[in-house]
Amino acid sequence: MKYLRFNSFLLSGIFLLGFSLQNCNPDPPDPPPKDLGFLGLGEAKDYVYFKKGTWWVYKNTRTGLYDTIEVYFNLLDTLAEKSDKWRFTNELFSVKSKSLTTGHFYNFYQRSAAVDVLTEPTGFITPNLARREPFEGDIIPFYYPFVKPHYGYNFCVNIKDTMNINGQVYPDVAVFYIKQDALEPDPLNGKPAKYYWARHYGLVQKDLFDSQFYGDTGTLFHSWKIVNSNIIQ
Q1: Of 7, 10, 80, 180, whose CA is between 20 and 30 Å from 151?
Q2: How sure is the predictor about 86, in pLDDT bands with cuts at 50, 70 and 90?
Q3: Within 13 Å of residue 85, how many CA atoms lie on the same side as its CB?
Q4: Is residue 22 part of a domain?
């Protein structure tokens, strides 16, 4: 009986000693979130951010029709964001415009944060172009930085090239290929398209392809090409 009691005291002592040692050496606390500072739009702002009063006139190469897009709202703001690993201030924007020909509304904005806060920050921004009132579809026809690898349903197929449209030379043009363009009316909805973005001018041309299968760009259906503009940045 004394032997069992001794063993009980011994086990209790070992347990208390271990517990005391554990309290004396606690696990180190998690490091605080790394401050990444200010993450701005950078040069992407020159391509996608335009102020109220900006307008563009485009001509359809197939029908000869003209369409005027006018900016009626713009917003540039910042947002503080954080996760367990990162803390930063993100630059956000919104540009709303309207087609004076068809009456369609467009909302071009930054759909998500500038970085993926769950993994190593990449610096991507993904402005999203959506047709509104009523909602008819949305795509991401522009992302930054300009890289050629596949990004979702988009490809950056050309980077900062010079482009001549109706005698006007546009420098620093970035061309994005969209596998499925959801902004065209039926039966063209979902066809492949290419968007041509010029620095300080915005969208200068869009090509839509009459594809017979997913991703086919063999047959050009029509293009919308810029013929005039009034840019306010």
Answers
A1: 80
A2: confident
A3: 7
A4: no
| Domain-embedded: residue 21 | no
Please tell me the chain's helix, strand, coil percentages from 3-state DSSP, rounded to the nearest 5.
15, 50, 40
- Specify which of 40-54, 76-90, 124-138, 151-165 reaches the highest per-range mean pLDDT: 40-54
The enclosing H or E element of 169 equals strand 168-181
Can you tell me whether residue 81 is helix, strand or coil? strand
Q: What integer best gives the mean pLDDT of the chain?
A: 79
The H or E element that residue 14 is part of is helix 2-24
Q: Which backbone phi and psi does 22 adopt, to 5 degrees?
A: -65, -40
Measured distance CA(89)–CA(91) in Å, rounded: 7
The encoded tokens of residue 96 equal 């709303």
**CA angle 51-57-61, nearest 5°?**
145
9 found inside a domain: no
| Structural domain containing residue 100 | 33-230
Question: pTM for this one?
Answer: 0.79
